[in-house]
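User: Here's a chain of 81 residues. Predict its fold as tokens.
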Amino acid sequence: MKLDEAKKIIADEGLHRVNWYDEENLRENQVGIRLDNGEWIIYVTDERASVVLGSISKFSSIEDALDVLIRKARYGKKIFG
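Assistant: Prediction complete.
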């Protein structure tokens, strides 16, 4: 998935619990993406706004990372609204 496609899905589907590249402080039940040493990292936060260690996924391709980000954001919307 391309970046512009991911952003359109997020806007169209109201996936508001996404944190792009740590642009905001971590909040509870959020899905985030960050770039670290050439790897895209997808993570989920818990009810205390802490990154759940078991949720961390690393990707060498942004397309693969965005696929997972969208999937986790959709799931989070089902659970947390």
